[in-house]
User: What shape does this take?
Amino acid sequence: MQMLHRQKEPVTEIIGGPELHINKGSTINLTCIVKFAPEPPPTVIWSHNRQVINFDSPRGGISLVTEKGILTTSRLLVQKAIQSDSGFYTCTPSNANPTTVRVHIVDGEHPAAMHHGGAIQLQVPSCLLMLALTFGILTLHYYRQQSNLLQRIRWRKGTIKSIITIKRQRQRQRQQKRQRQQQLQQQQQQQQNHLDKQQRNSNSNCFDTKRTQPCLLGHRTNLELPVT
Assistant: This one.
């Protein structure tokens, strides 16, 4: 789960690199892809042999098509390739690291595999490149959906937790209310018991021990007959 939320560094890639072989007189088609950027790059600059490409140069036939989105693509087209078009082409997005590809202009058809510096360069069919690009887009879309699903699950868990907390608070409030009522009843009962005790003490003190006669309303009654 943690891997889904880890922020990836932006990646810049030129399809078919690091070296390309182009037939003389054909069109140089370089596609630069910017992946995992937090937002589409405001600008994408192309340079040839460390010189920024001038699209209004007398050379002519140079155009650029850039499509911005989750996966930004910048396509450089150089028509009617000549030997001077050989060299290093660099794609530099404004919010990602640059990447470079080396272009070789060759006469006639070149074999599917060529040796350069001891390494074998295999020509990858364009259909496979498009398939890989489509797979990358679908994979990115899948991970975004998984991330949104995790966010919804967390939101629901937070909502359920809030409801449980509110219910527990209400239960505590009801318990506290019952406790206060019980305490009030106990206090009233204690007061009533105290009053009853005082009443009994008052009645016992109002008894005349000499004449063994009760006192009525706080006065002793004399029941002896007058002497004749």
The longest strand covers residues 28-35. The mean pLDDT is 79. Residues 126 and 203 are 116 Å apart (CA to CA).
